[in-house]
Design goal:
Helix content: 25-40%
Order of helices and strands: EHEHEHEHEEHEHEHEHEEHEHHH
Shape: globular
Structural class: alpha/beta
Bound molecules: NADP nicotinamide-adenine-dinucleotide phosphate
Low-confidence stretches: none
Largest sheet: 6 strands, mixed
Radius of gyration: 19 Å
């Protein structure tokens, strides 16, 4: 039996087992995917003994993505740019890592808003946490000319901007009404709007009709930001698709099959999210 897992702290809320067990069953693979609670500071030890513990590899979630990056023997280029790893496998005793949050975000946009990148010169990204770092890198690598970054803690936005000289402009939340009319794409990467968190307060009146709106929060499935954008006629991309697509590379590496993100899998996760 091939085994993989997700490490994080806390870990009980992580939905990856639902995704991977769905695919294991669908492709008739003798395998399992579990949640492993690993305390802050414990990721490097866990990863170094991954094979001894019987795992072909793992996903890495909060708060271990940077520690996992540092623990790798080899890191794929996309993860080097972000400084964080969320998918790990071993090959001949060497630990290899990648960042599938970036590819998952882009693949989801491609799926939900085909052609989104044809005319995106200017993207506005809200938030400067771990997810934002990868998303900004992904947008720039796909040809977005300039990213405007707004975050509560300005220093974190400036740290991301420093990695992409001349391509990122850092603004305050109060600047946004003046900036939104020029946006081709608006992405929320903050946890605002997530169930149990504060709401995201941002009037969309100034957005041009062609602007695309994406939210990576997936609980609830349709965040108030996405509902507002859809009501105004904008094309939108929800966060659940990103979660599903980021799981693909890990499954492929561990279990040897490139799995498909199907409507049935989406419905399974959506039902689970609605049930909580
Ligand atoms: P993170 O590193 O903790 O960053 C959180 C971000 O939200 C920061 O920009 C933070 O601002 C901002 N924020 C939090 N509370 C705020 C408040 N009260 N007011 C203003 N800003 C606030 O988390 P992350 O890993 O980037 O994840 C962010 C969100 O994306 C979470 O909801 C997560 O579930 C979701 N996510 C979804 C996927 C997916 O596959 N769809 C993948 C990754 C993450 P400060 O910097 O000022 O603290």
């Amino acid at each position: 039996m091939i085994r993989a897992c997700c490490i994080g702290w806390p870990i009980h809320h992580v939905r990856s087992p639902l995704i991977h067990r769905f695919w294991l069953k669908a492709y008739g693979i003798d395998g399992d995917y579990s949640r492993e609670a690993v305390e802050p500071g414990g990721a490097a030890d866990f990863l170094r003994t991954l094979a001894d513990r019987g795992f072909a590899g793992c996903n890495v979630t909060i708060p271990h993505k940077e520690a996992a990056f540092a623990a790798m023997d080899e890191v794929e280029p996309g993860a080097v740019a972000v400084g964080a790893v969320n998918t790990v496998w071993h090959d001949g005793g060497r630990l290899i890592g990648m960042n599938s949050d970036v590819t998952g975000f882009l693949r989801n946009l491609d799926d939900q808003v085909p052609g989104w990148d044809v005319e995106v010169g200017h993207a506005v990204v809200l938030g400067a946490g771990g997810a934002a770092r990868g998303i900004v890198h992904g947008l720039l690598s796909r040809g977005v000319e300039i990213v405007t970054l707004a975050n509560r803690s300005r220093g974190k936005a400036e740290a991301i901007a420093a990695g992409h000289p001349g391509r990122i402009r850092v603004v305050t939340w109060d600047d946004l009404p003046a900036i939104l009319p020029g946006a081709d794409l608006l992405v929320n990467t903050t946890s605002l709007g997530m169930s149990g968190q504060l709401p995201l307060v941002l009037p969309l009146d100034a957005l041009k009709p062609s602007a695309v709106v994406s939210d990576i929060v997936y609980v609830p499935l349709t965040t108030p930001l996405l509902a507002d954008a859809a009501r105004r006629g904008h094309r939108t991309a929800e966060g659940l698709g990103m979660l599903l697509h980021q799981a693909v590379p890990g499954f492929q590496k561990w279990f040897g099959v490139t799995p498909e993100v199907t409507a049935e899998l989406h419905a399974l996760l959506a039902a689970d999210i609605r049930g909580h």
